[in-house]
Amino acid sequence: MQNNQLNIEAEVIRSAFTTTEYVIRGARSYLVILHAGQCTLIEGEDEMIVDAPAQIWTPVGISARLSISPGSRGVVLRIPETILGLSIPAGSISGYIRQAIRKVIVLHSANPSLIQRMTRLFDDISGELYENHPAAQEIVQHSLSLMLIHFWRASKPVIHGAVLLPRQIVHEFLGLVELHMQSHWTIERYSKYLGVSKDRLNTATRRSVGMSPNQYIQQRLMSEVKTLLLNSDLSVSEIAFKLGFADAAYFNRFFQRHENIPPGRFRTRGVQRDGQRIRGSEFATWP
After folding, report:
1. What is the pLDDT of residue 179?
2. 70 neighbors 21 (Cβ within 8 angstroms)
3. Inter-helix orientation angle 213-231/198-209, to 10°
4. Which of 131, 142, 157, 159 is nearest to 89 (CA)?
5. pTM score, two decimals?
6. 79 and 22, same structural domain?
7. pLDDT attached to residue 88
8. Are 40 and 62 in contact (CB under 8 A)?
9. What is the DSSP letter of 2?
10. Contacts from 210-215 at CB under 8 Å and sequence distance 24+?
11. Chain centre to alpha carbon of residue 150
């Protein structure tokens, strides 16, 4: 089942008399919990037979097929990249989990208690997708976050002292900004999510992109604002709300601080410049 807003799919596997096949591709990760039976993971020329109880993770970008044998039972989650990014837990383990889920993971002979715990979380997600109650997204993300932690722990990770190199810190930070800039996360929240200090995040970002984390976030916000002002019919207050500004007056001050003119005047000037270019090009085509 799929919730149109969350775009995450939860399905129960009931392969009775025929083989069921899943084609894995695109911008989705797959989490398969196999309760009974057998499946075959086919990636290119490589095939891996997996007997239940087992868990399988395939990351975004992989092309593979999952063939479920007749009589097998289990569940499968198809997770879009955006929801996955929002669901990765914060803190010091964030980098470890991000690193782990970039590759295929197969947990053979999974612990029965872990299978039960993961299935209960799947049921929670499935129920929220079906009922679509208020705060469904938050519950789905929380449940998926717990599933990622349990799965990562079961993969017996080796934890080192420093998890992220400076370039990895910046890469993860830039991705998080795209996900959370409309929520106006603080730098402290970004650094906590990445499991690094604010000073380390600041140093890595300045060396990589030539500006502080806060400057980069404000630059991205201004870029989004200008795009919406010049290429949408939304009012200034609607744009402010869309980008997470609760107060239209504060939004106007924010914009004017960066551009030295109010957003409405910026839009008017942009429209006028476009009109002049159009008239000029039309005049040039006259005989």
Report:
1. 83
2. no
3. 60
4. 142
5. 0.61
6. yes
7. 86
8. no
9. B
10. 213/173, 213/187, 214/187
11. 19
Structure-derived torsion over alpha carbons of residues 188, 193, 197, 198, reported in degrees to the nearest 10: -30
Residue 144 lies in a domain: yes
User: Rounded to an integer, what distance in angstroms lies between the CA atom of residue 76 and that of residue 57?
Assistant: 10
| Amino acid 102: pLDDT | 85
Residue 144 has pLDDT above 50, yes or no: yes
Asked if residue 268 is part of any domain, the answer here is yes
pLDDT digits 0-9 by tens, 232-245: 999 999 999 999 99
Helices (H), 94-165: 94-100, 112-131, 136-154
Range of the domain at 264: 166-272
CATH of the domain at 98: 2.60.120.280
Pair (75, 177) in one structural domain: no
Name, in order, each residue with C-beta under 8 angstroms of 138's C-beta and a sequence gap of 6 or more: none
Domain count, the chain: 2
Distance CA 201, CA 213 (A): 7
Q: Are 31 and 81 contained in the same domain? A: yes
Q: What is the pLDDT of residue 158?
A: 55
Highest mean pLDDT pick, 85-89, 120-124, 168-172, 173-177: 120-124
Question: In sequence order, what E strands does the chain have?
Answer: 9-14, 20-24, 28-36, 38-43, 46-51, 54-58, 64-68, 73-80, 105-107
Residue 27 has pLDDT above 60, yes or no: yes
Is the per-residue pLDDT at 57 higher than 60? yes
CATH code where residue 211 lies: 1.10.10.60
Lowest-confidence region among 30-44, 84-98, 240-254: 84-98
Burial, 278: exposed, middle or buried (Cβ in 10 Å; 0-12, 13-18, 19+)? exposed
Query: Does residue 72 fall inside a structural domain?
Result: yes
Q: Three-state DSSP class for 27?
A: coil
286 pLDDT exceeds 50?
no
Residue type, 213: P
